[in-house]
Structure formats: C-alpha cells, structure tokens
Amino acid sequence: MVEPAIALFGGAYEKASHVLEELLRETGARYVLLLDRKGFVLAHKEALWAPRPPALDSLATLIAGNAAATQALAKMLGEPRFNELLHQGATYGLYAEEVGDLALLVIIFDNTAPVGRVKLFGKRAVQSLEVITKEALVEPGTLGIDREYHAGASALLDELFGN
Questions:
Q1: Which of 79, 88, 132, 156 is the most buried (most CB within 10 A)?
Q2: pTM
Q3: φ/ψ (deg, to 5) at 75
Q4: Closest residue by Cα to residue 108 from 19, 45, 62
Q5: pLDDT single digits (tens) 71-115
Q6: Which positions fall inside the Roadblock/LAMTOR2 domain (predicted)?
Q7: What is d(CA 54, CA 3) in angstroms, rounded to the nearest whole number?
C-alpha cells in the first residue's frame, strides 16, 4: 500500500494551515493545497467566497502525476529539475511549486488574481512549508511500507529514468 512520506498532524498541521491561509489572503486565490509527491493531500484551504472545490483526491493525484512527468521532461532536456508548473486557461490557472523533495504547493486561482502575485507569495510560502515538512518526514517502513517493496520500487524507478 502506498502511504504518504510526510505526516502532518498537531502543531505541524496547524503551522502549515496557517501558511496556506496567509497565502490565500495574499494572492486572492480560490484554493491552496499542500500535497506530497505521491498525490496525498496533506493540507488544504479554500477561500470563503470560492465555490465547492473539485474532488481533492483526484486533483492531487493528477497534479502529482503531472509534476512527475515534468521532472522526466526536465531530465530529458538535461535539466536537473523544473521547480514550478504553471497552467493557465481562459478563467482558471494552476501554479505548483516544489516544497523540498517530497511535497508540492498548489495554488488554484482565477483570472482576477495576478500571476506575478501568485508566484511571488507562492515562493515565500514554499520557504516556510519546506521547514515544516522537513520536520514531518516519515521514514519508509514506519507507516507499514515493506522495506523490500521500497527498495524494489526505487530500483525500478531508477532503471526507468536512467539513474
């Protein structure tokens, strides 16, 4: 069973939630999410005026997959990594940035929120969230992941991406 690499609870969860609330206020975004790279929602906030968000588990899984595909593209182009993703449509935009090696900050905004403001305050939030998530790391095996499975999966991914 796949389990999150970061366990936010208690004080760590409260700190992360506070950062996300501030980010909503500063950017005028509709939704902000903190995800791990496996697609688990660690924390999220939504603006009071925003309509009901889409299914967060599906959204998180798709964003994590998109981030993984983008990292593979970066490697193909000789880049060590791309640190952020930006998608813009006619009405909505999505900005995602890495929070350390294991998490992603996602900001979903509409066309009234300036992209520059979203990116600026998103980068500031990442700095705070990186400290919080480092303290909340879970060692493989402590939540029930078999070490043999973890080693096999890591080897398979290394082989797949040429590491």
A1: 132
A2: 0.80
A3: -65, -40
A4: 45
A5: 999 999 999 989 899 999 999 999 999 998 889 999 999 999 999
A6: 16-109
A7: 22
Strands of the sheet containing 41-46, edge to edge, are 41-46, 31-36, 103-110, 92-99, 84-88
- Identify which of 97, 63, 99, 65 has the alpha carbon closest to the alpha carbon of residue 82: 97
CA distance 29 to 48: 11
Nearest to 27, CA basis, from 85, 84, 89, 93: 93
Do 21 and 34 form a contact (C-beta atoms < 8 A)?
A: no
The single-letter DSSP state of residue 113 is: S
The neighbour count for residue 38, using CB atoms within 10 Å, is 17
Q: Which two tokens stand for residue 100?
A: 């350390």
Q: Which two tokens stand for residue 70?
A: 């983008």
Spatial contact of 150 and 143, defined as CB atoms under 8 Å apart? no
Amino acid found at 35:
L
CA distance 41 to 58: 10
Q: Which domains, from first to last, does the chain contain? A: 10-161 (3.30.450.30)
Sign of CA dihedral 103, 32, 121, 8: negative
